[in-house]
Specification:
By secondary structure, chain A is of the alpha+beta class. Chain A is 19% helix and 34% strand. Chain A contains 4 helices and 9 strands. Among the domains of chain B are: 53 residues, no CATH class; 254 residues, Aspartate Aminotransferase, domain 2 (3-Layer(aba) Sandwich). In chain B, a hairpin with an 8-residue loop joins strand 11 and strand 12. Chain B is globular and about 75 Å long. Chain C has 448 residues and is of the alpha/beta class. Chain C folds into 2 domains: 109 residues, Aspartate Aminotransferase, domain 1 (Alpha-Beta Complex); 259 residues, Type I PLP-dependent aspartate aminotransferase-like (Major domain) (Aspartate Aminotransferase, domain 2, 3-Layer(aba) Sandwich), CATH 3.40.640. Helices cover 36% and strands 15% of the residues of chain C. Chain C contains 14 helices and 15 strands. The longest helix of chain C has 38 residues. The mean pLDDT of chain C is 97. Classes of the chains: A alpha+beta (131), B alpha/beta (497), C alpha/beta (448). Chains A and B meet through loops of A and helix 14 of B.
Amino acid sequence: MDVPEGLKYTREHEWIKMEGNTGRVGITHYAQDQLGDVVFVELPKKGRQLRQMESFGVVESVKAVSDLYCPVGGEIVEVNSELERKPEMVNADPYGAGWMLEVKITQAKDLDNLLSASEYSAYLKQAGGGH
Amino acid sequence: MSGTGNTIGTRGLVLNEPLIFEQGSPGRVGYSLPPVDVPEKKAEVLIPKRLLRDGIPGMPEVSEVDVIRHYTRISQWNYCVDLGFFPLGSCTMKYNPRINEDMARLPGFAKAHPYQPEELSQGALQLMWELEQYLAEVAGMDRVTLQPSAGAHGELTGLMMIRAYHTSRGNPRSKVLIPDSAHGTNPATSALCGYRVVPVKEGPRGIVEAKAVAEVMDNEVAAIMVTSPNTLGLFEDQIVEVSKIVHAKGGQVYCDGANLNSVMGISRPGDCGVDVIQINLHKTFSQPHGGGGPGAGPVALKKHLAPFMPVPTVEKKGNRLTLDFKRPKSIGKVRAFAASFGVLVRSYTYIRSMGSAGLRRASEVAVLNANYIQSQLKGTYHLPYDRHCMHECVFTDALQARHDIHTVDIAKRLIDYGFHPPTIYFPLIVKAALMIEPTETESKETLDQFIAAMKRIAQEAEENPEVLRQAPHNPKVTRMNETKAAREPKLRWRPTS
Amino acid sequence: MRYIPNTDADCKAMLQAIGVRSVEELFADIPAAVRLKRPLKVPPALSESEVARQVRALADKNANADRYSMFLGAGCYNHFSPSILNHLVLRGEFLTPYTPYQPEVAQGTLQALYEYQTLICLLTGMDVSNASMYEGASATAEAALMAHRITGRSEVVMARAVHPEYRAVTRTYASQLGISFREVAFTEAGVTDIGQVRKMLSERVSCLVVQSPNFLGVIEDLTPLAEAAHAVGALLVVAVAEPVSLGIVKPPGECGADIVTGEGAGLGTGLNYGGPAVGFFATREKFMRHMPGRLVGETEDREGRTGYVLTLATREQHIRREKATSNICTSESLIANMSAMYMVTMGPQGLRDVALLNLRKAAYAKDRLAKVRGFSLRFTGPTFNEFVLRTKKKPGEILKGLLKRQIIGGLDLGRFYPELKDCLLVCVTEQNSRPEIDALAKALGGGR
């Protein structure tokens, strides 16, 4: 499973990539693989405030639904509206064009609760891929 | 090589048939109406023009012959109980007697109005009253409401009654206990009643264990929803202890009666401590499933819940039957009019045809048939709970998975052999389940044909797995692109112009 | 037993193969304490001829629309059903399959339901329809719950002119979730009081629920009601208990309705003492994912052939469990398809003609009965095939008198509306001939 360096991860299989005080959020390669063909992504509106690990939407395949959790607390400053038309981007490019949100982080210390790439890889291994 | 050899599955002549909207021509008609024998006033004289419509663009214009051909052709793309073995687990796809259809169509039932005077509806009311007695007797309960329109509707009605009962005692409570093997309607119903779902894990024997219930049971639990026999086809043999634990803390025991077909005349949920149970007439009591309804889900209950039954109930006053609307503690109504009455006629006719001994015999043979399949396929397919089953047996694809053949491939290949697939990927607690329910209306020969097909499929999984991955080969269409359907939802035809 | 093929010899062979001596052993898991030790108290089995005789005897005790002149509607309408409908729904291929979980062998049911969804959209003027609900009242209740989910608001404003049983069912459903209710009165025209609607609507209201034609038979002007609801961000739910009206009455979809529900039994299924029936449920495209119930969608198979599947199932209980849009599973597929068969048999012209016939016959009856001494029209608004008569004598006594002449004359409205206890609700359909209507007038004292 592809787990890029430099990103932070949640145990619910979201990633966040920080640039300054803004982070871009999506789901991991492992998560999209577990779901199968993504058919629908429900995202919130810009401007909404989220707490750390608050559910902000859902991602759906034909026969499964997964809640999405925001890795950090903050304000949603951008939403990937492309996913409305092209949910398959989540499968094709989960760390790139399949991103979901950009969040302006409120407290930098939220990042301390997240996993590094190596920690997340180990977590996946431990879970036996059978999440 | 996709042949199925000398089995009942084969290819026949199947006609293509477009959507009805792509047929017909302007001015063609399929209807006739009596002549207008009253003044032919224009519509706009009687109703203001702004409230009238211009027409119904897109509605097809076809003849009666076109309608018959259209539906007859597309009907031939369906598999059904009349055609062959339909071992869909937890669905009890038994034969649907035709006399029941004749009875439901008698003018005294089919052309009776639900608001016509009670004194002119005594036959309908008597049928409902007697059916209530029979269902109460089979379930071991005191009363039955016939109003709910399907199993899930019955669950909702039952849980509403439980909520009303608790509310009348001062606290509606906030939680419902549900085993992991439950049908999805159980948690969905709980949510509709404002309850939070607390999951209960099955023990290693595939049943809900009393000690697991004791750990989560408290004074905020309104009810436990337990399915017995459960979706693994196992009798919940600790149900009596579970009921005691739940009752001790003031909770109620709801039984999902979807699998009642295995215990008629043998054991009664009411004698196991159950307070409420819905009975799916379209499963156990032979109402045809119709491709997804109509069904009916009468709810049987113990006396203490009777004040909360939906209105109206059917009551007997001397020789006269009457609908009772004056029940101050009732939850109200869950549908318009008294019930899905036509369904009740079919199930009533079925019960009278089977009789007391016949109902018991049905359960015995249903259980025997399931155990026969289980015993013959054990070893060929992985059996996660290796013990005698009740009405259905559950296998998995574990032995075939090493050839990269999965439950869905096995299911689809069965179609080529002339059988409907079992229920697949349910219950969720079994990985890649194949849930087989034969019912009592199948003969040993049919079961043997099915068993032979399953064995051949297992062999194909080893020798020629590709033929399974590409299955089914014989129907009009192959596997459908469900991803496309969900990504680009197209839920209706639209006029092109 | 004729429905159980296995003989004692078959059973014996199977027991042997299983390795047990008796069926008893298979039930060993059931504790002795909860075994039934006596036969069920259900009468013994009957042969087919006996059961037919006994059931027929029950049927014969009921009045029915073949033996009586039926002027009773009130949400259950006596319409003609073309003969082919019955023949088609009795085909085993439609009657005896399960919900179409295996699309490769269920294309018949799936295509028929896809066509049904389309026909409901065409009839109601809406964008999307589901594959059916139980019946009109619970479909309307589900619409109120859907409006609650979409808006996040917990107050329903419902017209008092909505069918009393639809109101009761909606109340039962909604009260579980703490949704409150307020009722809007009707005017002297028999329509929902728009002034009062405007006063009751607020930003706490999830939806306004009305019916048209309403329970009093009067056609509502939906457009201003939709505008009033939308002005506060609420949805307009329109229930249609008499679908035949839509052959001629402007569809709710063209008047701004957000959800249209209703009872489809009027489309060829018949009375059946109130059921089985079929609830239709249609909405706007943007609310598609909030809908309850099954949805059939078009797609293609591996070889590119067009076909149909159940889709958007992530809304449903078997996947989303406690977060599902509804708990509904089995609905009314066969009746939905029967109503589709009715619509295509009638076609656009037939649907219009039958609606017009209802309208004209009812108009004739309305004129004729209003002229009878002791009777007058209670409301002034435009009606379709049902209307309210005010009576000098007690409605219950009038109805009782009519029974002697084999006439079921309508509904005593006092049963549901104390304020209308001097009123009769009378329904006239294409099944009522002019001589029947004249006989009713005569029986009421109208001479001729």
